Structure formats: structure tokens, C-alpha cells
Amino acid sequence: MEAIPGIEQLQAEIPAGSPLEQLSAAASLAARLRARGDELLDHFVDAARAGGASWSEIGCSLGTSKQAAQQRFAVLAEPTPGQAPFSLTGPAADVLNVAGDEARALGHHYIRPEHIVLGLLSQPEELAAQALAEVGLTTIAARTQITSELGAFAARPTGSLGIAPQTKRLLALAKAIAGSLRHSCPRTEHILLAAISPKLHSPAATLLAACGASPDRVRDQLVPMILEQRPELAGAFKRRSMLSRFRMRSV
Fold first, then answer.
1. CA distance 242 to 244
2. What are the b/e assignments for 205-234, b being 16+ CB within 10 Å?
3. Which of 56, 205, 212, 246 could join 66 via S-S bond, C-beta 3.0 to 4.6 A?
4. How confident is the model at residue 249, as a pLDDT?
5. Which residues does residue 163 pair with via DSSP β-bridges, in sequence order?
6. What is the share, in percent, of the chain residues with pLDDT greater than 90?
7. Cα–Cα distance measured from residue 184 to residue 232, given in angstroms and rounded to the nearest whole number
8. What is the rounded (10 degree) CA torsion for 5, 7, 8, 13?
9. 108 φ/ψ angles, rounded to the nearest 5 degrees
10. 97 vs 196: CA distance, rounded Å
């Protein structure tokens, strides 16, 4: 087996530059390493399941519980009749579906927050896509950045497709935001608000910033668009940043 690169080797991969430029490059490299490690695990979890291993056995091999292994690696199950995954319906549900298609097309094994950004961009009639377009983000730019960060591999039309824990947290926060705005189900703007929430530190926000659409720029664009439709929320936004009020519950 090839030796794992030592810290000196990894440091040598970081190009010369200012300390902050090198920190940014190191963060990018760390994200690629994490993604590659996750893909390695996904591959062998798929192989173990194909070989008849139970989720209890897989959890034991991973040093975790059966439930944790299922939540991390299981195929996205069809929702119970009358229910929707993460309470998503309409265009918001399409966001998750497109995110899954994008993950498969790039050969990834799970839906990450970065794929959710592509899903948001796929709904041009919705507030989230309109806000992202106004700050200059395009699908091509986002996909190029994702490929740079996470790599592109042979497409995976079949096989398990998990939902990364960060994605679950993002969608759970979107549901909380929707509830606070008196919507029964999340909309695309709620998903985008969750993606840029400072409480979440989401990879989606990192992607947006790398494409020149910093969370602050996106928020400054999106909030007035929401208020145009829902002016009664102006007081809540003026009192304090709505995004800072949302704290995560356990997912």
C-alpha cells in the first residue's frame, strides 16, 4: 500500500504566497483529502453491502453504531407516502434531486452542500437562483470550482448515493428558517439562507466565496428580494441579522 503523505509532503504542495493565501490553499487541499477519504470509504461500504454485510457489521468495522453508518452511507430512501425528504416539496425538492444528479454525473458518492448550490442554480424562476445570478454566479463557474475542489470521476448512474452530514445540517436549518418565516415547507431561498448562515460554516458558503459570491454579498442581495415579497418581515431583519438567530438542533 502506498504510504500516506507526511505533513512535510503536504506542506510542499502549498504554493508560495502570503500566509492567508497559503491558508486558503491548505483549506482547499484539506477539503480534497477529506473528499477522497470519504470516497474510499463509500467504495468499500458499497462492496461490503454487496457482499451481504449488515449495517450492524459495517458500523462495527467503522467503529460506530448501526444507525450512524446507515445515516452516513445508506441510499437515499424513497419517502413514506405523503411525506417528503427534509419536508422538501416543489422547487425545493427539485433542488435536492438535481443535486443528486450532479453528484452522480461527477462520480461522487454522496450529496454535498456544494451540489446543493448547483441544485439551487437549476431553478431560475426561484428567488435563490435569481439572487445568485445577480451576484454573478453561474452554473459553469460553480461546477468548475466543485470539480477543482472535489475532483471529477466516472459518472455513477447506479450505486448508493448518501447524503453528507453537512448537507443534512443545511437542510435541517433550511426547515427551521422556513418555520420561523411561517412557511410549512422550505423554499429555495430558505435553503440559500441556510447555506450562507454563519452558524453552519457550510462548504456551500466556501464554494460561493471562492466563486466571488461571498455570503455577505449573497445575503445583501437575497434579503431585499425576500422583503419585497414579505414586507412584514422587515422588523425582524432590522432588529438583528435573522441568520444569526438560527442555532442547529441535533440532526
1. 5
2. bbbbbbbebebebbbebbbeebeeeeeebe
3. 56
4. 39
5. 111
6. 39
7. 17
8. 70
9. -85, 160
10. 20
Cβ atoms of 168 and 251 within 8 Å: the answer is yes
Cell numbers representing residue 237 in the block: 431583519
Q: What is the pTM of this model?
A: 0.69
Report the distance separating Cα 190 and Cα 229, nearest Å: 14
3-state secondary structure 197-231: CCCCCCHHHHHHHHCCCCHHHHHHHHHHHHHHHCH
Ranges 61-65, 136-140, 154-158, 168-172, most confident: 136-140
- Report which of 223, 205, 222 is spatially closest to residue 214, judged by C-alpha positions: 205
Q: What type of residue sits at position 63?
A: G
Given a contact cutoff of 8 angstroms between Cβ atoms, the answer to whether 243 and 197 are in contact is yes
Instruction: Report residue 198 as a C-alpha cell.
Output: 454563519
| Residues paired with 162 in a beta bridge | 110
Which helix H or strand E contains 1, and what residues bound it? Answer: none
Largest Cα–Cα distance of the chain, in whole Å? Answer: 61
Q: Which residue has the cell 466556501?
A: 206
Q: Grid coordinates in use for 217?
A: 454579498
Q: Which residue has the cell 457550510?
A: 202
Q: Which of 60, 126, 136, 64 is nearest to 98 (CA)?
A: 126
